[in-house]
Amino acid sequence: xxxxxxxxxxxxxxxxxxxxxxxxxxxxxxxxxxxxxxxxxxxxxxxxxxxxxxxxxxxxxxxxxxxxxxxxxxxxxxxxxxxxxxxxxxxxxxxxxxxxxxxxxxxxxxxxx
Amino acid sequence: xxxxxxxxxxxxxxxxxxxxxxxxxxxxxxxxxxxxxxxxxxxxxxxxxxxxxxxxxxxxxxxxxxxxxxxxxxxxxxxxxxxxxxxxxxxxxxxxxxxxxxxxxxxxxxxxx
Lengths: 113, 113
Fold this sequence. Notes:
A: globular
């Protein structure tokens, strides 16, 4: 079974630029999560989708971050404009249902200069 | 509120047992998890325990839960060099809005030959 796929693996941008990350969850997994992991910290949930609907985006900085999951499969997370403090690893995870284990992708390491 | 605390670092000799500790604050936690993160990789789910259990054993891994003290531990028997990684404890609370994971800051485990 293929795992959660993410791209790109690494991205370096200047502050005020825009960036987008892509996630393809495990086939059949209805629930998709985006986490932000700042160096030296545990992951923090940004947004959770159930199929293509948002379940929880309470910790998403909506003035600059947006996410979509149009067909209930792949998802894109966008930052516009980026700030220095957005430097982090962005992890995507998926699960069969809300109650099931979350499986994580390898992450996208973003560096904002 | 939700808060998960872990010690920062643990050093152990190959072949010895490792014990990683975690404390959490939310007594309504439903599940408690242990994840492993190797350098440059995403999080790998090691094991999880329901909040109504005291112990769970899975091969070399033993999870102990003390609900009264809100203390969770992970014991790794016969620790190997491949066990060197960062270990994250996480709690989740099932709500109508979903299964949000709150992670600790991670414990870096170094296994010395």
